[in-house]
Specification:
heterodimer; A: 111 residues; mainly beta; six-stranded mixed beta sheet; five-stranded antiparallel beta sheet; 11 strands; 0% helix; 55% strand; B: 112 residues; seven-stranded mixed beta sheet; four-stranded antiparallel beta sheet; globular
């Protein structure tokens, strides 16, 4: 089955800096890669996703890149703000299955 | 509207109790999921319903029993749970499997 590795497990940055979180997946059949943000006491919130036919996608301060050959994808957050502090999960999926999640990255943005 | 509604938000139950968790979405999604999440861990898949049929059961103990009465509702029936079953139970839905999934806020379950 699919296995998703996520690094780093914790990340501390200063406000205004960039943050990068990386994930690798094992199943070359996976073709959908979302990123979720989870704040304390809440359910995961979809923040951006990418499909395997696209190499990069951007939404304001957030971008995701995908390297199908290397089977890895990354989340980039620019101009970080304290409200970006949360746990971020990457995931991978393919038709007929459910999403498999990485172990999560706790991002702390200090002002 | 991308809302998935879960009730109750909190639940405390004894090991001999029977209770149910409920999940509702009105986005026309045809895939619905139950995940279990322990503190500081990722969501762990329990069940997948696709077009109201159970398509994936991740070897979940029989004390957890899912039900999908219609395309908008998903239930999780609980019976004879153990303290280690205490966790956040998350429901999610997506248009189909492997498409954008939206999560509810979860039910915080404590088994005493």
């Amino acid at each position: 089955g699919e296995n998703v590795e996520q690094h780093p497990s914790t990340l501390s940055v200063q406000e205004g800096d960039s943050a990068v979180i990386k994930c690798t997946y094992s199943d070359s059949a996976s073709n959908y890669f979302p990123w979720y943000k989870q704040e304390l006491g809440k359910g995961p919130q979809l923040i951006i996703d990418i499909r395997s036919n696209v190499g990069e996608k951007k939404d304001q301060r957030i971008a995701v890149t995908l390297n199908k050959t290397a089977k890895h994808f990354s989340l980039h957050i620019t101009e970080t703000q304290p409200e970006d502090s949360a746990v971020y999960f990457c995931a991978a999926g393919q038709a007929g299955t459910a999403l498999i999640f990485g172990k999560g990255t706790t991002l702390s943005v200090s002002s | 509207d991308t809302e998935v509604t879960q009730t109750p938000k909190h639940l405390v139950m004894g090991m001999t109790n029977k209770k149910s968790l409920k999940c509702e979405q009105h986005m026309g999604h045809r895939a619905m999921y139950w995940y279990k999440q322990k503190a500081k861990k990722p969501p762990e898949l329990m069940f997948v319903y696709s077009y109201e049929k159970l398509s994936i059961n991740e070897s979940v103990p029989s004390r957890f029993s899912p039900e999908c009465p219609n395309s908008s509702l998903l239930n999780l029936h609980l019976h004879a749970l153990q303290p280690e079953d205490s966790a956040l139970y998350l429901c999610a839905s997506s248009p189909r499997t492997a498409t954008e999934a939206f999560f509810g806020q979860g039910t915080r379950l404590t088994v005493v």
